[in-house]
Amino acid sequence: MNKHEMYSISQVSEITGLSKQVIRKWEERYQLVQPERLENGRRIYNETDVQAFLKVRKLTESGYPVSQAAVIVHTKEPQEVTYSFKDPEISDYFLQLIEKGTHCDELELNRILKQAHHTLGLSNFLSDLILPFLKEVGDRWEKKEWTEYQESVSSMVVRDYLVQIRRNYPYREDAPLLMGACLPGELHEVQVQILLLQAMMKGWKSFLIGSSPAIGSIEALIEKFKPRIVLLSALTTIPFEQNPTVLDQLDHFAARNRSINFFLGGPGAIDYTKDNLPKHIEVVQTLEEVFAIRG
């Protein structure tokens, strides 16, 4: 067994956010797992054990009693299990990232990202590991299980690694240009980095304006580089709260540049545009929708 698949009770506590007392209680009262014992009597857990604790925690947060959650995990009812990875190796990388993120260990986070990238390939690395990891980071920060520093370090290391990949990704000089930008006031650009990389895998070259640019900068750079596609992102509703006219301004700009395809995405944008749908900017949830609409 790979050494990364063995965890002490302290590591399990860090990964799952459960106290050692809760881990022992779930283990003994509900027979959730049966950890191995070292010669000194200490518990040692494998990856399947850690996943069981994570799944039960998620189910209890959804309202299930612990006893019922334990039964669901044991019977492996797929519709109820929220932590599932198609590849055990991806699951192992995910748990390692959570552990190192808990300790804000930048060097180890970067090492794991590099190893996972080369092992999984870029497409699986982005969709099957990075997106679930970022979601978990965000969830832990929102629930105050992680501090702002833990969230910031983990997100920053991922962002910097994706920037490095994108800068070194080969593309044809005559490839069409896709430009990505966060809306003014939106500081989270990692999702845009992922979208740009996914577009580059489809034969595009990319340009990122960055987080929280001025609206004038977005318009000036679009006019200068004339991209085929512009992806605007709002992970939160903060841009619309800070500047209630920002969407109207960009929609009017899109109307004056009909040769360019404008798209808007992100949870914040999806939520806001339910009652404020723009006329000249398409609201989408996935990159596949972008190319399907354009196409």
Automatic annotation (TrEMBL):
InterPro entries reported in the protein's UniProt record: Cbl-bd_cap, Cobalamin-bd_sf, DNA-bd_dom_put_sf, MerR-type_HTH_dom, MerR_fam, Meth_synthase_dom
The organism's place on the tree of life at top rank: Bacteria
Domain HTH merR-type: 6-75
Presence of keyword Cytoplasm: no
Listed transmembrane segments: none
Keyword Transcription regulation belongs to the record: yes
Entry keywords, A to Z: DNA-binding, Repressor, Transcription, Transcription regulation
Protein's recorded name: MerR family transcriptional regulator
Organism: Chungangia koreensis
Lineage, uppermost ranks: Bacteria, Bacillati, Bacillota, Bacilli, Lactobacillales
